Amino acid sequence: MGENLILAVALDGAGWHPAAWRDADISRSAVFQSSYWVDQVLLAEEAGIDFVTFEDALSVAAPERAGRLHGRLDAVQIANFVARRTSRIGLVPTTSVLETEPFHASTQLATLDFTSEGRAGWKVQATRPGESANFGRRDSLAFDSEFLSTPAGRAEVARLFDEATEFVTVVRQLWDSWEDDAVIRDVTTGRFLDRDKLHHVRFEGDAFHIAGPSITPRSPQGQPVVTALAHSEIPYRLAARTADVVFVTPNDDADAARIVGSVRAIEEADRFEPTPLRIIADLVVALGPSARTARDRLDAWDAADGEVYQSDAAIVAGTAHELADRIQSLQAAGIEGVRLRPASVHLDLPAIAEQLVPELHRRRALGTAPAAGTLRGRLGLDRPANRYAA
Amino acid sequence: MSHPTKRRLHLAAGVPGVNHWTVWGAPGAGSQIDFSTFEHVARTAERGFFDYFFLAEGLRVREHKGRLHELDVAGRPDNFSVLAAVAAVTRHIGLVGTASATFNEPYDLARRIASLDHLSGGRAGWNIVTSSDAFTGENFRRGGFLPYEDRYRRAAEFVELSRTLWDSWSDDGPAQYRYAGEFFDTEGWFPVAPGPQGDPVLVQAGDSGDGRDFAVETADVVFSRHGEPEAGRAFRTDIRARAVAAGRDPDSILVLPGVSVVLGDTEAEAQERARDIQFQQVTPQTAIHLLEQVWGADLSAHDPEGPVPVPPTSTREEFTQGQARRVDDPSAAARAWHAEAVEHDWSIRELVVAKTTRHEFIGTPSQIAEQLDDAVQTGAADGYILSGSVVPHGIDEFVDRVVPLLQERGVLRTSYEHPTLRENLGLGDRPRANERRVELEGVAS
C-alpha cells in the first residue's frame, strides 16, 4: 500500500439506521445531551480516527414518522462544545448554504478553528427537503425524482449548485480577508491593525453581494477544511472547484474507479483551489462477529421501522475483517479514505474503534495518528497562502 | 450572617468589544481572539459567582474617512460558536450572546441558541439588537434593507417566531408550527426540544422610547448605559413603569447597566489609576479620530495635545461607518464640546478624554462594595455588567478583592443555587407560547 488511508466517521443521531435509537441504551432525548456527543468523539479520537462529521439540516426529515428520532442540535454548536473536550481529532460540522448567510457561516467556522486550535472543517450541504419553508424566502425545490430528471429539473439543480459554489467561494475569500499579520499592536503610531492587510472581498454574485472584510481574523489553519458529499456531475463540480475533500458513494470497486476518473477530470479542468482534492468513499457499516449476525440486526431494525433501510452509500454488513478488505479494494481503485457511517453509534462506533482500526493497523493501512496538529496536517494538505497577500 | 431583607446584586462580565475603551497597548494585554481569552474571563467571572458572561457583536469592520479603522481593537469570533466552547469549560455561569434581529433569520438563530441551552444545561441567553445600518447590510444577502422605523417591528416578530419554535414540541416530538407575519411567513417543524430553561433568557439594550417599549414587551434583562446611580435610578424607574403599563410584573425584568470599575489601595490611588487608564484609552491618534467623528472634518493636521479647533459650520460628510453614532446631533454637539474646551482650557486629547471615557465606580475595594450595595438597595440597578479595560485580566482584581466583600455584605451569592441562568437571575418561567395563545384568546372573548 502506498499512501496512508484517511479514516473518518460520520455522526448522526443514534446512527444512520432510522431504528438505531431503539437500542437499549439510547433514549430519544440523548441527542440533546452534551455528554452524548463528547463520549462519541472521544471514542473516535482515542481510536485515532482523523475526523468526525456532524450531520445537520434546517428542517426535520419525515416528521410524520412518529416512530423515528427527530431531535437534533445545531452541528456547529456541537462541534464548538466538543472542541474543548478533545485535542487531536478533526471536527467537521454540516451547514446548509441556501438559506443561511455566508458571512455568518464564515465567522462560525473560523471560530471553530480558533476554539479547536486548527481542527475545523466544514461539510457544505446545498439544501434538504423542507428547509425553504422554514425561511419563507424562496420557493421550495421539488425533491421529486421525476421532476429532477427533466431538463427543467436539471437546470434548477444546476442553478442551486451555482449558488452553493458562490457561497463557498465567498466564505473562502472572507477567511482570507485578514492576512495573518494584520494585527500589529504598534503603540508608537497607535495602530492596532495594518489596514493594508485587511481586504474588502467585494464579492458580486448572482445570488448575493458581500463587501467584507470578515470580522474574524484569519484562523489557525488559514482555511478550515471544506468538504462536500457528491453523487453526480453537478455536485462533483462544486467539490472539484471549491472543496478540499469530496465524499463519494461508489457501489463497488468498478464504480469507484469510474467516479474517481470523473472527479479527477473535472478537477483538472475546473479547480479554483491550489491544493489537490481528496476523494473519500462513504460506507454505511454494521459490524458483527459474522456477516449473518450483522445482516440480521439490520433486518430486525428494518422490521421495527416498517421499511427497508436504503442509502445513497453502499451498506456493508459484516465483520471488521470483511470491512477492511472492502476498504482496501476501494483504495486500490483510487479512493484515498473512507467516511464510515455507523448504522448504530452505540454498537458500530465501538466496533470501528476496537475491531476495524486494529485490523487496519495489522495490515499497515493506517499511519501513526499524530499526537497534535491541524486537520489540514492530518490530511496532508498545506496551510494555504493567503489569496490577498501581496 | 444573614440579611433576609437585602436585594441581591446581579453581576455579568463581558469581553469588551471593538472600541477605544479597550487598552490593547497595556502591559498584560492579551489576544482579542484566542479562545484562552474567552475562557479566562468566563472562568474568572464564574469564580466570582457572576450571573453571566456576555459578548457584544459587530458585523462589519469599522471605517473612518472611507478607510478601515486601524486604531482600536478589532477582530472577534462568532458569539454563539465561542459560547458553545465556553460552555464546555464552565459549569454554572450563564452565557449571553448578542445577535442582530436584522441580519439573522429566526429559524437558524433560534436553533443555535436552543442548542446552546441544551449543551450548557440551561445557561443560554440572547441579547437582541436591531440595526437599520445599510453599511453593515452590505455583508448580508439582503443588503441594507431595513428602514429605521421597521427595525423593532421586525425584531418583535423575530422574537415571537423564535418563541413559537422553542415551544413547538408536543410530548411526542416536533409538532408542526405555522407563522404568518409581516416580515416572516414560515412553516414546518423545529428539531430542537424545549431546553432546560424553556425559553432562553432574553436581554435587550434599547434606550429610545421604542427600544424601552420593546424591552418591556420582550426582555428578561435590560442592558442599560445608565451606570451612574442617579441616571440609573431614573432609567430603572421608567422601565418598571413601562412594564406595569404593559401588564407585566416589574420584578420580572432586571436592569443591568454596563459600568467600568477602577480599584486602588487608597481612593487617591484609584483616582490616579482611573485617569491613567483614560489617557491610555484616548491615545493621541484616537483623540484626533474621535474629534473628527463629531466635527465631521479632517483634523489630521492638528496637534492632539494642542487647542481644540472651531467646528466647521458647513454641511459635513458622514465620517464613520460601522458603529452606533456617538451623538445624536453632531453639529450641535461639536459647538457644545468646543465651548466646554474653551471654558476649561482643554487640549483636544483632554476634551476627548472628558467626553468619551468614564469610570462609574472608582475607589478602594470596600468603597466599591459599599457603592454597589447601596446602588442596588436604592433602586439604581438590579446589578451591573462589568468589562475591564484590559483583556483578558480586566476583572481579575474585582473578583479577588471586591467579590468577597460583597459576599460578606450578603448581596452576592456564595454558591450557585440553581442550574439555569433563568433561575439564578431570580426570574420565573415565562409563559409558554401555547399558554400565551390561550391568554390572548381569553382577552379577545
Measured on Cα atoms, how large is the radius of gyration of chain B? Answer: 22 Å
Sheet with the most strands, sense and barrel status of chain A: 8 strands, parallel, barrel
Q: Enumerate how many helices of chain A there are, as a single number.
A: 11
Mean pLDDT of chain B: 91
- The span between the termini of chain B is 52 Å
Strand order of the largest sheet of chain A: 1-2-3-4-9-10-11-13
**What is the helix content of chain A?**
25-40%
Classify the secondary structure makeup of chain A into a structural class.
alpha/beta
C-alpha-based Rg of chain A, rounded: 21 Å
Q: What kind of assembly state do the chains in view correspond to? A: heterodimer
Q: Spans of chain A of 5+ residues with little confidence (pLDDT < 50)?
A: none
The SS-based structural class of chain B is: alpha/beta
Strand content of chain B: 5-15%
Residue share in helix of chain B: 25-40%
**Main β-sheet of chain B: number of strands, strand sense, barrel status?**
8 strands, parallel, barrel
The largest beta-sheet of chain B arranges its strands as 1-2-5-6-11-12-13-17
Q: If you average the pLDDT of chain A, what whole number results?
A: 94
Uncertain runs of chain B: 431-445
Note the total helix count of chain B.
16
Shape of chain B: globular
